[in-house]
Amino acid sequence: MAAWPAASSDPKAKSQPASAAWVQQFLLFALFFAGLMLLHAPLLRLPYFWDEAGYYVPAARDLYLTGTLIPHSTPSNAHPPLVMAWLALAWHVFGYSTLVTRTAMLAVSAFSLLGLFRLSRIASNLPVAWATIALAALYPVYFTQNSMAQVDLPAAGFTFWGLSAYIAARTPAHEEHRPWKQVLWFSLAALAKETAILAPLALFGWELLGYFVRQRSNEIRSKESRWKEILPPEDKRNRFFYLVLPVVPLAGWYAYHYAKTGFLLGNPEFFRYNVAATFNPLRIPLALGMRLWQLFGYFGLYLLTLTGLLAMLRPPRRENGVTRPRIPFWIQAAFSSVLLAYLGLMSVVGGAVLARYMLPVVPLVILALVSTLWRRVRYWRLIVAAVAIAFAAGLFSNPPYGFSLEDNLAYRDYIVMHAEASRFLAMRHPGERVLTAWPASDELTRPWLGYVSTNASQPFRALRIEDFSVSQMDAAARARDRYDVALVFSTKYQPPHALLENWDAWRRIKEKFFGYHRDLLPEDIAPRLGGTIVYHQERNGQWIAVIALEQ
Question: Using one digit for the tens of pLDDT, what is the confidence trace for 168-183?
């Protein structure tokens, strides 16, 4: 690996031995890993949460136990198997446990931060790089995904490495013209999650546009200097065609999946929910607005965005008689091409508009804004510190709008409440038929998820419903002979004083396009089912209850 000089650093940096660069990277990786382990220590033994329990851990466990890349204990979603294979390897070496799972994911997260640090250093400079990874690590969505057995953050990490290899190959100070590095990192990103293929394809599109612009340079001679700043540096050997190669291993995976299952993009229900049902001309602009909010405003990002925009009104600062440099325009354009690709696709597909899907591009926004502050604001470190405090506060305090529980430490409250309720059921109602919704239906019937004892002599039998809305509760009331007890819980976070709470039009839009519903409270559910609340707990806007039916 090459060293980490900034794009405008002195030529002496190029002479750093490759061995010294490897040592530097290893030490930084160890530092990041130790820091993440320390920060996540209270979370390492938590049972699995939501999509972890519903797909990724079962898929990895099937690979661990049987060696099959296609899961059989859960319907296949056609996600590439790289992360699941990593977990299966970790379990094979160290044994199956949530501690091993979360430690293995933190190792990937440390490697991802290392990639972001390298990318930031190449695109800007060392102070900006340290500030960028500090903010990214504290950003609530990024922080919580660090230890989760999910695929979005690993895909983002490999994307950072791919982008850094791409920029290094185009930066004269690096002289690192090795296209295979870009192919390797972007291929690993796509094999972590299929949507990561957007990054190399977006860069390829931008490079191709630059190629055609240069071919027509005689027609735009008057604008040539401006185009030279925006377009990526010319590669006379046209090695940017290597950016298409990461499609090959991804296509190979889908061919294998189709041959084994008969489905190309996952099981029919997965495809319907995430692709077929989202192609709606009214839903797409709404989803685009939500994606823009996740990029520039979500969980304190609005503070960084606002200060960055205000900084643009100030002139660049001078240091030793030289104006502080910006991130080169062509690098900004490359980042923008990736960002626009994610904005476009993620506004069209994805039944749930989850913030974690944007993890490959949110750190790019953070990097650009931090670089702007460094270039134009004298006390830029104070602004970065204030944003870091806002991010840290967002980990522990819920916003005044609905959000996914996995986006801050609300997911821990969920896990703790469900684990305690599961233990109550095991003590007071062992082996009984339980009415509940997913994912609690899996939590009760799969002991290896960590919620119930693996030594239980009387396993639970779960009757699964969709949620705890009025219609579902009325249907459950008509089937009282099929269950003995009900485990009910808040499936969505409902703020006590939500923004737009009384706007019926917005509520109808959410119900139609984004699966919104209102759960009945336990005191309303119990009389509908003809039961009594025997267990009830609340934490920071979430609740869970056990209702025993009157025989």
Answer: 988 765 555 678 899 9
